[in-house]
Amino acid sequence: MIEILPESAGCVIGFQISGDVTDEDYMEVFIPAIDLAAERYGTVRVLVDIVDFKGEDFGAMTDDLIQDTKVSLVEREAIIGGEEWEKRLLSVQPAFFLFSSTDVRFFKPEHRQEAWRWVSEGMRDLVRAPEPR
């Protein structure tokens, strides 16, 4: 499952990855949130918090992500998880939440606040309230 975290604001989007991740999670939550932020702000920063992750059914997700031009606008990404996640993600790049031209840093779960600070650093001017629908 992929959920948008309530701390998300403007061009800084946090996602919690837990349980089983499906193609639908990716296509209905992850990519639309990044696309919307890219359209509104021109640049995006992402925080991924990996909690109780069980497995994934990526299907065509990786190919779709590689072909999507908006993901190139993700300039910074913080990934929260244990050391095993850093090794696992680096060994399968490009995975669906690792972007090749992005400054990526890994944080242990006990450094969650530090991860939010880093991913949001210097973004004050780009973070503005969402436009009313």
TrEMBL record:
Coiled coil: none annotated. InterPro entries: SpoIIAA-like, SpoIIAA-like_sf, STAS_dom_sf. SUPFAM superfamilies: SpoIIaa-like. It comes from the Archaea. This is STAS/SEC14 domain-containing protein. It comes from Methanofollis fontis.
